[in-house]
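Slack export, channel: ligand-projects

TW: morning all. Re-posting the request from yesterday since it got buried. We need the structure predicted with the small molecule present, not the apo form. The ligand is adenosine-5'-diphosphate; the SMILES is in the block with the sequence. No rush, but it would help planning for next week.
GE: picking it up
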Amino acid sequence: MTASNQTGAQPLIELQGITKVYGTGQAAMHALCGVDLCINEGEFIAVMGPSGSGKSTCMNILGCLDTSSAGSYKFKNIEVNRLSRNQRTRLRRFYLGFVFQGFNLLSRTTALENVELPLIYRGTPARKRHTQALRALETVGLKGWESHTPAELSGGQQQRVAIARAVVTEPEILFADEPTGNLDSARSHEIMDLLTGLNRDRGVTVVMVTHEPDMAAYANRIVHFLDGLVASDKANGKDTL
Amino acid sequence: MIGNTLLLALREIRRNVMRSILTILGIVIGVAAVIIMVTIGGGATVQVKQQIASMGSNLLMVTPGKRMGPGQSSGNIPFKQSDAEAIAREVGSLQSVSPVSSKSVKAIFGNQNWSTQVTGTDNSYIMATNRSIKSGRQFTDSEARSGAAVCIVGETVVKKLFGGQDALGEKIRLENISCEIIAILMGKGQSSMGTDQDDIVVIPLSTFQRRFAGNQDVSMIQISVQDGVSTEKVQKDIEQLLRVRRHISPSDDDNFNVMDMKEIASMLTGTTQMMTALLSAVAAVSLLVGGIGIMNIMLVSVTERTREIGIRLAIGAFEHEVLLQFLVEAVVLSSFGGLIGIVIALVTSVWLAGILGVPFVFNAGIVLVAFLFSAAVGVIFGYFPALKAARLDPIEALRHE
Ligand SMILES: Nc1ncnc2c1ncn2[C@@H]1O[C@H](COP(=O)(O)OP(=O)(O)O)[C@@H](O)[C@H]1O
Ligand SMILES: [Mg+2]
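GE: finished. pasting the full token output, ligand included:
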């Protein structure tokens, strides 16, 4: 936990002994076997590790999209595992942003409407919602593409819409599970620049899964997963101490 | 929040035009079919009832022959006018007794001709068959006795021979006699059997016997029973009297037939009511088929919709918000479909009623039932698949294949 001791402040997220078991009995599959992890505000973390090591499972638990089998997950010192379904929804709605490898945009729905969606659930008034969504799309470099549907956009553009949707609510932390997994190298670097910008300029904490060292290089801390455990966790050489 | 939900629901409907149209279509067809069938069926029943009422349900028809329909009297001893007079004299509780003989005859006026039914009878026949004179007068006693060449004609005959012109006082040719029109009957329209009741020429019985038949026979005796009197009792009395007059020994069957119009009437109403029930059953099936169509569409789209639910949950929608959106979608689609169905059904019913010549009877009950059923179908098939998906963890819904 070298990198987590940089600041004396309360960590944003604290995982302790998080396990996740899929199935029961003979077929039980231990995807996470006791993960400990601290995430501080303002960090840009890259999560790496071989396929099947539990990265996605851990991200889904962090993003409150899934629940752990055992262990403690504290978000801002609140025990998430004790929250009700609706309280966890509220966490997603107001504090967390999530970017999926497969984009998960609503099909046949314009980029603008996709980005507006989280604001609708937040109850943002129409006019404000509209300007915020437009600004978010502009931030990800999609000015002029607002009325295009996912089918009319390239993979890179779709991922940028997804990022715009995740950040339009100005979340405290952004989780991205292999955001560049489906993109070619040039598009991938654009996405990384975008995430780096959000982290540096807006102070958004970013946790990103990737298996490409090129992309991990953008982060200031790299966590390695192996067989459902954190195998190593160190600061990225470029900007530590 | 309701406003937002409505917005989300309407966006989703607009996005999936095809799915929405198919859903609406299923409901439209079901609702329209049910309403049309029931409305037309109801109209037909009402029409039959009206006609029976206008025919006079207290009517008895006495025909010669054994247990056969009217007109099938060949080979049997016909009645005479004296039989009718005997019935009038000896059977109580009667309003009128009309001896009737009729024949199909070509009527000619100028260069117009028209084949019609010439009926020889007396003045009481007009009232007994619920007809009335629109203009002109009845037969006088002397005309009736002497067999004068006078006639009372129905509206159809006037229309066919005279166009729109006044026919009263004109002379028309029936076979080779020239007959003066002394009255025109009030229009009566079609009978429940589809015959035109205004296509008729009435002449005195004696005229008919002398100039058309050449004998003293009466082919049918039409009897109108006083209101509130049991026709069964009267029927029995007439049968007894006629058996005596026709010298039938106790061991022999009647060689005549006394028919109660009430029997015919209830048979006819029963038939139309059964037809309505049958048609309604067919319509209900089509409503069900529409419902199954909707279910199909919903099931086909369930994967996509489950992912949609996963996305909504993942970006912070509450379970109840997602469900409310699906409920609103289902209700909007099915009530829209229901309303279109109702409009189509009413327009079609009015049009069909016109073509079939039955009255348009608005049945608010069936409209309501069809509408509620369509709404229920939409809600059940649109909402319940969503109910399952919205209870999942977002990641499970997103993973749905
Ligand atoms: N829904 C699931 N049901 C059963 N096993 C699962 C499920 N999701 C993931 N797993 C298993 O859990 C392990 C970790 O998966 P995952 O977190 O997706 O790994 P990674 O993202 O690092 O490739 C894998 O062995 C995978 O097979
Ligand atoms: Mg993964």
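GE: first-pass observations. Chain A touches chain B through 30 residues (CB under 8 Å). Residues A 55-56 surround magnesium ion (ligand 2) (CB under 6 Å).
TW: perfect, thank you
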